Amino acid sequence: MDFYRMSQQYDELNIERYLNSIDDQDVINAINKQHLNELDYLALLSPSADKYLEQMAKRARELTIQHFGRTIGLYTPLYLADYCVNQCAYCSFNSQQQFKRNKLTLQDLEKEAGAISKTGLKHILVLTGESRSKTPVSYIKECIVLLKKYFSSISIEIYPLDVEEYKELVDVGVDGLTIYQEVYNEEIYRQVHLKGPKKDYHYRLNAAERGCVAGMRSVNIGTLLGLGDFYSEAFYTGLHANYLQTKYIDVEVGVSLPRLRPFKGAFQPRTTVSDQQLVQMMLALRLYLPRVGINISTRETAKLRDAILPLGVTKMSAGVSTKVGGHSGNEEASNQFDISDERSVEEMMEMIYQNNYQPVLKDWHLFR
Amino acid sequence: MNNEEYFEAKPKDNLKIANENLKSRLLVGTGKFANNQVMNKAIASSESQVVTMALRRIDFDSEQENVLNFIPKGCILLPNTSGARTADEAVRIAKIARAAGCGNWIKIEVIKDNKYLLPDNYETIKATEILAKDGFVVLPYMSPDLMVAKQLVEVGAAAVMPLGAPIGSNQGLQTKEMIRILINEISLPIIVDAGIGKPSQAAEAMELGAAAVLVNTAIATAKNPVLMAEAFRDAVKAGRTAYLAGPGATKDYADASSPLTGFLNNQSE
Ligand code: SF4
Predict the structure, then answer these.
(1) Helix and strand tally (H, E) in chain A?
(2) Chain A residues touching B53 at Cβ < 8 A
(3) Alpha helices in chain A, H assignment, sequence order
(4) pLDDT tens string A37-84
(5) Is B198 designated active site?
(6) For the whole model, what pTM was predicted?
(7) In a domain, B15, yes or no
(8) Above pLDDT 70, what percent of chain A?
(9) Which of A178, B47, B81, B255 has the most CB within a 10 Å radius?
């Protein structure tokens, strides 16, 4: 049974009605349980849990320290190219946007890798838009082979692939896959993905699982907060993470909580996810899935990132540029979206130390 | 053992693993600390002589972030194979650790299960066999099971490290009965690894007859890790001393000072 079929069990559940039926006692019970089920998770996401954020935060902090210690993993994204054939309503790399597109040559990439590795980071996330003609799997493979010289862990956030293609990338040294469903609600998914292969909801939904099958060590999922209804999107994200973690016990599952950010174009989020909701989702996730990685990117402000550091986060990006060649000084390229926290790796490390946590620059090495 | 023999024996009560004679029966880990300086101090105050660290975490390129630079001099390094999902991977990690100058002690950790982090005993036996043959001092982390422990002995382990409870759970000796059986039946040192959350639990393991305990989370995540390391040091010593002293047996019934059936013996008088 794939995740889609599994999640259909919940189609019957009227989430709104269920949320309204949750009372304080349900929330308190969920906070105090050892093993939470999906309905406990939903209770913690509910408006009734608003008043219990402090208790949730205490428990979340305990669980996070217990399982991950006082450590925060750091990584940075590296953009290979901004060519894209899709039309996602919320993204500046959307094929309708007119700007000069870029793609790194292997020489460019070497410069970029050199610049990043000077900061001490050992983990990177390689990104590219969806263009099988401009950035085919063979090109990505060449890039990975080069990057292996510089980094001990390489994750990819690229267009969804078949199992065999993921395997090819695993074989050359990719160990992590990040793939956001963007929005679990199928109807909204159809509305915001106007054109291009990304329109295929199911192919994207099953990509995380294909990555697990292909032997990825870590798989990171997420919904783009703001596209759909907060409660059901948060709920299905948790379900999806639990599904993967239970079925592929050897895979480290992670969840990102990205909120929509300003970009080139006029799309406005349907809902605005408040800081409080973002925090509530993070805490609920931690209580529901104590061992899942939680990733907060530089889409969030420095102030917010500092404040939530002790609550459940396990990974953060640092020294971020969302443009092609951005680490080695290409000023011409376009940002995929605007970031909020522009701190360098060094500054992030300093901040983490000051909060009595340890920044971890290296936590994996593919020993071949 | 009478009192004299005991006082004779105590100063020599060392833990022997491979060819090393260790005074301390507390092994510590290096993960989860807020920074390397605190870790360094905590290890020092634990007086531990064997320190484990994940090879995957070691950043050889960075002076400041390289955990190896913060391990007190004189400690035996016990790199572990954390991250390995198969025997093959564990073997590879062990060889890299040795080549990188971390010595030839290795803690086998083969974990496929990310939800509970329970070890894979079958792969652990395989890795132990290969590495022991290759001259490593192998300390396998395992789920307590007598048959598995026996096989680990057979294939050349230097000690056996059963879990007390799942890693990081701080639940103490949940597997006490199984560990008791291992202590009784296995001639190698039994080192309780994982699950110990409090000094009292470490003492309990030592009273039971464990040869040593390995503690990481409980020290690293304590409010004051340096002080907690000290508490563990003392608890392990106290537990060991109690074991040597031979605690009186626990009984379900109190021994009445004037026995209830005493009259039976008196009848003939
Ligand atoms: S989100 Fe990705 S697929 Fe969509 S337009 Fe942007 S780069 Fe292309």
Answers:
(1) 15, 9
(2) none
(3) 3-8, 15-21, 24-32, 38-45, 53-68, 106-118, 137-147, 163-172, 186-192, 201-205, 207-214, 230-247, 275-288, 302-308, 345-354
(4) 999 999 999 999 999 999 999 999 999 999 999 999 999 999 999 999
(5) no
(6) 0.85
(7) no
(8) 98
(9) B81
Q: Convert the pLDDT of each residue in A23-37 to its tens digit.
A: 999 999 999 988 899
| Residue A94: pLDDT band with limits 50, 70, 90 | confident
Q: Which of A252, A358, A361 sits opposite B34 (nearest CB)?
A: A358
CA B238 from centroid of its chain's CA atoms: 16
Which residues of A are less than 8 Å from B65 in CB distance? 120, 361-362
Domains and CATH numbers, chain A: 60-360 (3.20.20.70)
- A249 and B115: CB-CB below 8 Å? yes
Q: Which amino acid is at A42?
A: L
Whether residue B7 is contained in a domain is answered as: no
Q: Which among A316, A302, A312, A320 is positioned nearest to A360, based on CA atoms?
A: A316
Residues of chain B positioned with their CB less than 8 A from the CB of A69: 31-33, 217, 220-221
Segments forming the whole domain that contains residue B140:
21-245
> Considering only alpha carbons, which residue of chain B is nearest residue A364?
B56
Ligand 1 contacts CB of residue A198 (under 6 A):
yes
- pLDDT for position A97: 83
Q: Does any domain span residue B263?
A: no
Closest chain A C-alpha to B98 CA, distance in angstroms: 13
Index of the ligand 1 atom closest to the CA of residue A196: 3
Mean of the per-residue pLDDT values of chain A: 91
List residues bridging with B141 in a β-sheet: B161
B107, B126, B198, B237: the active-site residue = B107
- Tell me: is residue B168 an annotated ligand-binding position: yes
Q: Which helix (H) or strand (E) holds A293?
A: strand A293-296
Domain of B146: which CATH number? Answer: 3.20.20.70
The more confident residue out of B71 and B141 is: B141
CB distance from A149 to chain B under 8 Å? no
User: Of A7-21, A343-357, B37-51, B238-252, which gets the smallest average pLDDT?
Assistant: B238-252
Determine whether the interchain pair A70/B112 forms a contact, defined as Cβ–Cβ distance below 8 Å.
no
**Shortest-distance Cα residue to atom 1 of ligand 1:** A91
Stronger pLDDT, B127 or B246, i.e. the higher one? B127
In a domain, B193, yes or no: yes
Q: Report how far Cα A65 is from the mean position of its chain's Cα atoms.
A: 21
